[in-house]
Every structure is written in C-alpha cells, then in structure tokens.
Amino acid sequence: MRAIDWVAGPRIGHIRLIDQTRLPGSLVELEIHTVDQLVDAIRRLAVRGAPALGVAGAMGVALAVGTMPESSARQAIERLRVARPTAVNLAAAVDRTLEAFRAGGPGDALATALRMRDDDIAACRSMARRGVELLGELCPGRARLTMMTICNTGMLAAVEHGTALGVVEQLHVEGRLDRALVCETRPLLQGARLTAWELDRMGAPFDVLVDSAAASTLARGGVDAVVVGADRIAANGDTANKIGTFALSLAAAHAGVPFLVVAPETTVDPGTPTGGHIPIEDRGAVEVCSFHGVRTTPDGATAINPAFDVTPADLITAIVTDRRIVRPPDSPGAVPVGAAVPGIGALDEEEA
Length: 352
Ligand code: MRU
Known about the structure:
Elements: E1 4-8, E2 13-18, E3 29-32, H1 35-43, H2 50-67, H3 70-81, H4 88-104, H5 106-138, E4 145-149, H6 164-173, E5 177-183, H7 190-202, E6 206-209, H8 214-220, E7 225-228, E8 232-234, E9 239-242, H9 245-255, E10 259-262, E11 268-269, H10 286-289, E12 290-291, E13 294-295, E14 308-311, E15 318-320, E16 325-326
Parallel strand pairs: 4-5, 4-7, 5-6, 7-10, 8-11, 10-15
Antiparallel strand pairs: 1-2, 2-3, 8-9, 9-14, 12-13, 15-16
Helix pairs in contact: 1-3, 2-3, 2-4, 2-5, 4-5, 5-6, 8-9
The protein binds 5-S-methyl-1-O-phosphono-5-thio-D-ribulose.
Residues 45, 48-51, 87, 151, 153, 157-158, 163, 190, 229-231, 241-242, 307 line the site of 5-S-methyl-1-O-phosphono-5-thio-D-ribulose (MRU).
C-alpha cells in the first residue's frame, strides 16, 4: 500500500492518494486529476507529512505541465508551491520538478516525480536501519524498547514506509519493540487517528496518550527514546515539526531520555540558517475551537493554532537522515541541555 502514487493514463496519468481525513474510519483513495484538486487535498490534510507533500508537489507539477496550457500551469504550480509553507519538501520538490521540465519537457518532469517517489521509499528504508542501529548504541543492554512519538511519521506521511515511525516499525519487525507511546497530537489527532491506525495494522503494541501526559510519563521513567519526524531542518540543526514536539524535547532532556529526529535529506534546508527563519503555518481558530464540527468553546472565543514548533538543535540527541547521523561528538545518550548539535547544512559527516 502507498500513501501516494502515480497512475499511468492515456494522456499523462493522475495521482492516487489515501484520504487521510477519513482515517481511521474508512480507507478511501482519492483520484486527483487536477492541480486544484491536489491543492485542496493538501490544504485540508487529505495528504500530509513532509515527504508525502514533496512527492505530491512533484507529481502536481508533472500533472500541470502535462495537461494545462503554459500560463495557467504556471499559476497553478505557484498555488501548489505555497499550499503549506513549513515543510520544505513541498516547495523544493516543485522547484526541482519545474527545473526538469524546463530542461526536458513534460516527460522529464514526470520522470523526476517518479524518481522522487522511489527515492523516498529507499530513504525511509535506510533511515529505519540507521535509527535502529543508533538506538542499540544509545540504549545499551535494553533488549526491547519503549518508544514515544508524536504526530504521524509513518507510511501515510511518506510513500510506502515511514521516517520516525519507520524506526519503530523496524524495531517491531526485529522483535525489539516493547511498546510505542503515541501522543494524540492536538488539534487534528494525527497521532491518535493515523499513527495508531498504522501501528494497529502492523500488529505493534501501543498506547495513545494525551499530549499533556507526555512530560510526566517521560519523567516517571520507562521510556527508552523519543523519535519524531521533521518538516524542515535548518542549517544549524534547529528542527520544525508538529506542534508539541518542542515540549517533548524539553521533557526528554529533563528525564535524560534520548530525543531523535528522523527525516530524509530532502527535509534538510541549508538555505534556512536557523529555526527562527522557518515559516510556521497557522491553521486558524476553527480547528481549536471545535471538534468534528461541534463547537467546544464559547461563541466568540478566539484561538491561536500554530501547526508546528521549532526544537532547538541543542535539545536533539541526534538527527538521523538517509545519508548520515549528526550528533554532538562523544554524546553517550541524551544530550545535556546546552550541548550543541553540529550544523547539518553541509553533508559533511557521512556514516556507513
Ligand atoms: O500537519 P502535518 O500532519 O502535515 O504535520 C506532519 C508532521 O509534523 C510530521 O511529523 C512531519 O511532516 C514528518 S512526516 C514523516
């Protein structure tokens, strides 16, 4: 099963993706034939998660240049490029696919999009292997691990395998997962709805906890590591991810629990110097003031709804990508608050 894929067709083809707004109740796929349909799917989180957004952006460009006259394709692609601002994967994939189109036409754009889909599958496999190896080192003597995570970083957020949840899945496959603890992830419940759905399908043991129970659960002991994904990793290692990730990193540091960011190189943005430069999407009050269409706050209540926050590099034990592991030198496990993760902008620390 793939979260997003390309379906070949007589003219050019179209995008097929799982409608994540319908999970866990129904597994429904959407057939996307136009860029406007894709932009709508991205905005309402039918497709979401940084790697999946990258593949969606690339396929959207292939769709636009393969089906639309040039000037309307250009406008549609610009709408697509900015549909969600935080995950660098979307704009970067749009730009890369457009470049391929300019060099070689619609065929090259589609080939680039399909290569990005395939690269994502390979990258997730590589991150899972690397992440499990690193956990062996960070949690010596622990045969089976209890892992805490937030949001959804599984296959739904990528193509076929996940990033941080891919590490949890790999532990489960190897018989080394004791339990996954899944933060529900307010306000849209990507943890409770999507990660729990994926773990259930894998047959992995898990509990869902409300986000506000995470810190005390970590402080009580018994959690071996926290693994999270990323929407954008700045050149200094500061990492934007789902709102609540920063709080988790503080609690993990307080409890002395390793805090790992697992994300493909496509999420590293050397052009963004620090976390302070990362644009944070605000999704508006409705998602906070109501639940499933039912208002939960008094009429007239206002809300703030940042979809992401930034975890400073010095709270991250290690960043695991498909090419490398970046961590403070000599870090045996959890990083003491204040230790610095070396910059990740340049791919200069390659590990086997
Ligand atoms: O708003 P979302 O659901 O798109 O947020 C997703 C996340 O924050 C993920 O952790 C991140 O994109 C990494 S997905 C492998």
